[in-house]
Each structure stands twice: as C-alpha cells, then as structure tokens.
Amino acid sequence: MNRFLHVCAALSVLLACESHPENTLATLLAESRDSLVREVVDHPDKYRLQIIYTQIDRDKDNNPSFRDYYFNVDSTLYFNPASTVKLPLALLSLEKLNTLDVPGVNKFTPILFDSAFSGQTRKHHDSTAENYLPSIAHFIKKAFVVSDNDAYSRMYEFVGQGTINRQLHAKGYYGARITHRFVRMSPEENRHTNPVRFVTADGRLLYAQPPAYNEDTFDVGKDEEVGEAHYDSNDSLVYGPMDFSQRNRLPLKDLHQILRAVMFPDAVPERQRFHLTEDDYSFLYQYLSQFPGETNYPKYDSVEYFDSYVKFFFRDSLHRKLPEGVRVFNKVGWAYGFLTDASYVVDFHNRIEFMLSATLYVNSDGVINDNRYDYDTIGHPFLFRLGQIIYEYELTRTRKYTPDLGVFAITYEKQLVDSRPTIWNVDN
User: Fold this and answer.
1) Disulfide-capable partner of 327 in 11, 191, 289, 398 (CB 3.0 to 4.6 Å)?
2) Which residues contact 64 (CB under 8 A, 6 or more apart)?
3) Checking DSSP bridges between strand 367-368 and strand 229-231, what pairing results, if any?
4) Closest CA to 288 of 166, 389, 147
5) 86-100 and 252-263 are packed helices; what angle lies between their axes, rounded to 10 degrees?
6) Which helix (H) or strand (E) holds 177?
7) How far apart are CA 124 and CA 141, in angstroms?
8) Predicted confidence (pLDDT) at residue 100 exceeds the cutoff of 70
9) In what helix (H) or strand (E) does residue 91 lie, and over which residues does it extend?
10) CA 225, CA 242: separation in Å to the nearest integer?
C-alpha cells in the first residue's frame, strides 16, 4: 500500500481519499448513478457508512498481494457488530482447543455446559446434531451457516470473557470489545462463564474446565450513543439515544483483517494469526461458504434460509442464489439497525477474487429496539448494489497472473432426503 493510502487509512478521511485517482473504491462509487447508492454514499454520516475494498493480485508463484481502499472508515465511529463477532469467537474456540492439547479433545468432541452462576443455563444435548451432542464444530457450523445465536453464546462461555478480549488485543485487534452473550443478562452475569466438560460419546470425562470470572476493565470509546430514542431492558420507551458503551465492539478494519487472517494466514503478521491446524482451516472454509440448503446437520429449510441468506453482497429481494461459480467466505451481522458484512469473494468460473467489508445504519425513525428498521428497503438493497459494483469491476480488471484458487474449492454437503423436519425458526 502506498504512502497516500496509508494516510487515508490512518486518518479515515473520505474527502482526502476521494479525490485521489488511486482510490478505485471512491471512483467506482462516484460513478454510480443508482439512486439508492447515491443516497447512501452522499450521506455517509447519516448512514454511518464504512467500506473497505481489497484488490488481490497474485505473482507467478500464486502468492497474493493486497491493496486496500477505504471509504469513510473510522475505528472510533461506533457500529454494533452484531453477529460478526461470531467469527473471532469461532477462531478463538479452535485456538483454545489446540492450546489445551488434551488427548481426545478436539472440535468434534462432545462438550457439556453446566451452570454455576445467576443466568447461566445447562446444555447437555443438541437435537440438531447427528449424535445429539453439542460440540465446538457444531457451534461453528451453526454460527456461520445461518448465524445461530446460541452457538455464539456457548463459544463465549467456553473461551471466557477475559480470555476473548486479552487474546484479541494481544493479536493487535485493539478495537475489539466482547462483553456479552446473545441472551439478556446483566454485565456482572456476563463476566461469569460456565463450567464445561468434554466427554466421550458414552459420557466418560476427558477434560473439565471450571467456571471463570473476568476481573478486567473495558475500554469505553467516545460517542458510543446511537439513535434518538430507544426501548430499554424493561421495554419502556426512553427519549434519548441508546448507550452502547457496555456492548460489543469490533471496528471494521479489525473485522476485515481477522477475515484476511483466516483466508490468507501467511499474508498477515504472525501475531495477528490464530493458532489453527490445516484441518481447522479446511473446516472454516467449508462452513464460511456453505449454503444452508447444502447442510445436513442441522437440516435447514432451504426456502426460509436460501443460498444468499447470509451473503449480503449477493442478496436482495430478487436474488436468492449466487452467480454460477461464485462462493462467498464471510460473516454478517444485523442488529439495532446496523447491517454488516465482511466477505472474501471467489468466482471459480472467471477466476477472480477480492475482499469487501461494509457496515451501515438504517433506522429512519431513530428509535432503537422497536424492530422497525430499514433493512429491506435500504440496507439489503444497498449492500447488494455495492457488492455488484465491485464484482462487475473485478470481472473487467486486468491481472498479470490468473489466480489458482484450488485451495478454496470445497466439496460441499448434499442435504439428505429423510424424515427429519427442516429447521426454519433459528434464533439469529
């Protein structure tokens, strides 16, 4: 990345980058005549819009290089990351398993959750798993394929609040702040995490982890209030913004870099990588990109959970399937009027690849927690059109060397025809 783009990234000043001929992202957005794209792009503050676009070029040995372009990116501008935090939680869960190095304990080993503090719940069974037992692998699968919330909460309980934040900060993701499960609990209850046990299929104990408590304090950013009014935990309307300073935080640059660390671990500084095995990477690549209708356990309803359900750059009201040959390795999130997607996109037919991450806030009535957001009228259509602008540009962009994308070619599952009912009411 040249010196000018470093300055743009550091200062996160749109106008400085916008006028520079090397900022391809700003140029592409400026050239769009789509009325919705113009509305959102011309009012980035209103929509809290942030975009990162990464061009990927290969050398003759297929080694990738990256050029990042930024639009209005500001790590101090709060957005609620929602389910995107499931990505680092999955990586930290796998890393913890590898660090434990207990014989017989791996991502497929049954894990049982007990309770030891107020608000905690037990989990000894999982009716969506083939063996009816919970496991880290099954949680990751559910968290990625349809963005299941309980899966995230259980990974949070396994890794522990303190470890989650210390590990992310140690890796250089300083803006991350993970404070809570995705169930209604107090800050004190979220500091406590459950005792867990890894067992064999017949119940023999392999490893027991005691309950944990996080004594660390959290950094609170400036201006983490959003909205004009909100419903509080008692469902009472409060005329004033909602304070997100005790909520999760994951700046877009950190999220984008975490995804790069998964897809291209050798291309990020060693400290930013996660301690994963080759099998872990293969597993992650499959479920970051597999469609719900290709998944056997759980058996999702492919009409309710269509191919592009969690592929926002290829999803709108008319597009429920991706173009032939395209796969998206990504994690999305939606909550409180925020929509976010961090994606690595591969077109195996045309042999192109790129990364794209974006977040925006679509809440025209200004009230948070009223479940009246503009996801369908503004959010999803904008992200789809943004995705298509970049995808169509990438189809025309000249590359000196055509990438070999074989490492990302996955043999996906094929959903079985059996008597099990399909799942169509996931809590996500």
Assistant:
1) 289
2) 56, 57, 58, 264, 267, 403
3) parallel
4) 147
5) 50
6) none
7) 18
8) yes
9) helix 86-100
10) 5
Residues 6+ apart with CB under 8 A from 10: none
Cβ contact 331:312 at 8 Å: no
Which two three-digit tokens encode residue 152?
Answer: 């995230």
Give the C-alpha distances (Å, rounded to integers) separating 136 from 84, 90, 108, 148. Answer: 17, 8, 6, 13
Name the one residue in this structure whose structure tokens are 């990345």: 1
> With 70 as the cut, is the pLDDT of residue 3 above it?
no
Angle (nearest 5°) at CA 148 between 366 and 409: 115
User: Rounded to the nearest 5 degrees, what angle is found at the Cα of 167, between the Cα atoms of 248 and 222?
Assistant: 35
What does the alpha-carbon distance between residue 184 and residue 310 come to, in Å, rounded to a whole number? 24
Closest CA to 29 of 323, 299, 382, 332: 382
Give me the chain's average pLDDT, please: 94
Does the pLDDT at position 371 exceed 50? Answer: yes
The whole-angstrom separation of Cα 297 and Cα 192 is 30
Look-up: residue for tokens 């709108």? 316
Token duo for residue 255: 């999220």
Q: Write the CATH number of the domain with boundaries 3-408.
A: 3.40.710.10
Name the amino acid, one letter, at 71: F
pLDDT-derived band at 220 (thresholds 50, 70, 90) equals confident
pLDDT class for 296, splitting at 50, 70, 90?
very high
